[in-house]
Structures are given as structure tokens and as C-alpha cells.
Please model this.
Amino acid sequence: MRIIVCVKAVPSTTEVKMDPVTNTIVRDGAQSVVNPFDSTALELALRIKDEREALGDDVRVTVLSMGIPDTERLLRDCIARGADDGLLLSDRAFAGADTLATSYALSCGIRHLGRPDVVICGKMAVDGDTAQIGPEIAGVLDVPCIADVRELLACDGNCLRVRRGTDAGIELVEAPLPAVITVAKDAAQLRMPAICGVRASLAAPVEVLDVAGVGADPARCGLAGSPTQVVRSFVPERSSGGAWLEGSPAQQAEQLVELVEGMGL
Ligand code: FAD
Model:
């Protein structure tokens, strides 16, 4: 069984620097960590691995990322915790990708690794926050996608059974493999690395590929391949104070209209 976990490097602080020209996050690596949702994704992959290997199956867990070269450090940390190997897509041509270009590049990485049984993504990345990549990868691979998994109940060689969150509550869902799932942060707690895991991670294979190496079309990668761009990202100024509306509901509504009209929106 081949399980691929998509792992994104995200800024470790909320104070992120934005490139004033491309309006993308300056990913200088020094402060990056694994997106917290992806740590949960890795733990669920490792639990499937533990269970299937106890039944005699051969399971390989690969961590896949598109990011700057420093991201290799984070992939090796995932290997220290139990992943088998990693693939890093790193090339300036990938920079500034929107989710369409990102999911295309990651899908090329998944095809390079060979058809997976399960792809596990975090529900969302804490910086871009779109929650689009998992479903988009499923669309490119033309496989089922179950989003917002809260609990993994079972995964054998043919199907997986989960509990997932919806606006109406918790749903029990089963999907045939291969499939993509995206996981909620509190679905599991990532295990600590063992000493032997840390040692093994230093020599473990982490392939680093550029656009050509992964067989991607440069016109569909990075800023060039992004039909949408972030025009501006900013921390909204917090206006102090506020207006307290008095009187009957009708009077308050009148005051509200005046206030909003006065804003010149
Ligand atoms: P999400 O879809 O939230 O991530 C879900 C999961 O996908 C992650 O948990 C992880 O498992 C996987 N994943 C995501 N990125 C990677 C990666 N690089 N490597 C490996 N796995 C990955 N782009 C848009 O198209 N539309 C927008 O509206 C948009 N708004 C943005 C707003 C801000 C403030 C910022 C900083 C970026 C925004 N972007 C947007 C760019 C977006 O961050 C990138 O497209 C990014 O590569 C993926 O989107 P995401 O972070 O929202 O991922």
C-alpha cells in the first residue's frame, strides 16, 4: 500500500512578510514549520501503516511537499516520526502558485511516485487557508475525496471508512481506494520521533525535483500557471471604539443606516 501525505511548510509565526510586488508570502524558511493539519495527516498515515503491517501488508508512507529547499528539513522530521521517504518539489518556477497551480504540481509529484492508494492532506493550510488543495488533487487524479475527516475508522486495501464533519453534524462515510482525504487538526496527535528514527531520517531518501524533473508543464506552475493572484494581504487595522445604538429597533435601524451611509462604502 502506498500512502502519500501532502505536507506544507508554513510560517511559524503569525507575523508573515509579504512580497510587495507579487503579494505572496516571503518564504525564507528560517521560521517555517509543518502546517499543523498536516502533522495530523501524517499521524493517520502512520496508524494505517502500523495496522496494515501488523496484518502482513507492505506499506510505504511518502511525504510530499512543494516548497523552498529548506523544506527538506521538515520532510526529514516527518521521516524521523515514521514516514519512509520524501519528495520535495523545489524550483523558483513553482513560486507564487495559487491553489490550481499548486494542486497541479503536487499531482505531478504524486504521478511521479506512482499511483497511491491514499493521499492524505490537511483540511487547510494555516497561511493560505483555502482548503482547496485536497479536493483539487482528487479532481486531477479523478478519485473520490472525503474532506474534514474527524476520525479514521478503517482502511484496508480496497476502501476506507471515516467520520467526517459537515455543517449538519458528523457523517459516517466509506470510499473505495484510491482516494484523497483531508483531515481536521484534532483528528490525531502526531507521535514523537524515536532516536532510531532521527538517525534513519538523516540518511533516508528525500528526492528533490524541479519542474522538468517532475515532468510538469512550466506554463501551469507558479505565478505563470495561476489564474488567480492574491492582490493584497494585510492585517486589518483595528478601529478603536464603536457606536452604541439606543432606542427602539426601528430607531436603531435608522441610526445604523445613517452610520453605514456615512462610511461612503
Ligand atoms: P490549502 O488548500 O488550505 O491546504 C490544504 C492542504 O493541502 C494542506 O494541509 C497540505 O496538506 C496541502 N498543501 C497545500 N499546499 C501545499 C504545498 N505547497 N506542498 C504540499 N502540500 C500542500 N491561492 C488561491 O488559489 N486562492 C486564494 O484565495 C488564495 N488566498 C491566499 C491568501 C493568503 C493570505 C496567502 C498567503 C496565500 C493565498 N493563496 C491563495 C495562495 C495559496 O496559499 C497557495 O495556493 C498554496 O500553495 C496552497 O493554498 P493553501 O495554502 O490555501 O492550501
